[in-house]
Give the backbone structure.
Amino acid sequence: MIWKMIYNTIGIAAIFTGFQVASLFNSKIRQGISVRRNAFRQLEEQLKLAPDFTQRVWFHFTSVGEFEQAKPLIESIKDNAQIILTYFSPSVHPNVLKYPHCDAHTYLPLDTAINAKRLFSLIRPTVLVFSKFDVWPNLVWRASDQGVPTVLIAGTLHQESKRLYPIARSFFKQVHNKLTLHCVISESDAERFTQLCGDDSQVEVTGDTRFDTVYNRAIMVKVDQFLPAQSTLKYPIVIAGSTYIEEEEVLLEAYELLRCGETNGLLHLIVVPHEPTVEHIQRLCSKLDMLGFSYTLFSDLNSEMDLSGMEVIVIDTVGLLAELYRICDVAFVGGSFHGRVHNVMEPAAMAKPIVFGPRIENSYEAGLLKERHAARQVNNAFEMADIFRELIFSAQLRQQMGERAKAVIVENLGASQRSLNHLERFL
């Protein structure tokens, strides 16, 4: 295949060079390159200690969201199969370390033909499962050559995807037509994936497994008191989750507009940065100081504090967002002013009204929530202030939007079982 040759020469060289250059300016990429140096050794050591099963299922995912999509399937088959996980982003590594249902895990090495051959030799998978869209060509080609089935779960391909551009589509056809099965989240995704694999028998609409994950997690969250001194908060709570600098600017401008209007700032804003690094928190706090907001850090909270006059609480740790949504009256989901909206399912499962910014093309569920009037989309601080004002003054509207959001989650349950039914064909 001409595309295979191009990918393994020009393509791999470009990917390698791109990461090396980017690492000079991005610490996360630099970390990702560093940890991959020992990937094979770590995997080999873990596999020596792993329980031996006839079935060995290899799951690969990019980051935390895709890991969440894989979890229901992992937990359904873990008693009868060896589970091996590979991942791309350093952000998922801490989650995997705490996860009890895998036998071996490592960062995915650079997708060269040699690395793919070595991985298959070590893992000897019964089946290889990709999550959402992170399908690596040499892994697929090696699996095809060795007769190992490959399955994509919760597959999604939005209508503006570059994979559908003529030249890119010609290349990705050589990858996706080697995938054994695409389990995708919607009919529109199925139509687009069929353009890549050329055979609709390779595509099944199963839904998104995250609907099941977030619903089950929401059921497990029973406690309403997550913050020290939470009972002293007296106004509606807006939680801004997974925020970047761009949307924090918009959020604070919107809050300033509310302070100057008839609401007189009658809300508490809890900001949960996507990556609460020291630099990010310091920059956010400097902005809050400059604007004259009263604020505190989560790490400084204690049960003796009176938060009734506190305008902003900054969450300077990780791992709290999904549960924090339970205490809010309105959820703003971040990423949508930065490039791609983050997880809108978590607040929806908690029956919360949702607000997000302009960029939601990556999220089928965000579009669905907007279509069902469970979420509002804003493009600037003025629109954000308007919808916050409307929701602050109307408990009825908050309840209606929250109920619609929860209904969207409930109506889409069952994807995990449907995907499992297909996966079990290869076990």
Observations:
- The chain is about 45% helix and 15% strand.
- Residues 230-411 form a domain with the Rossmann fold fold (CATH 3.40.50.2000).
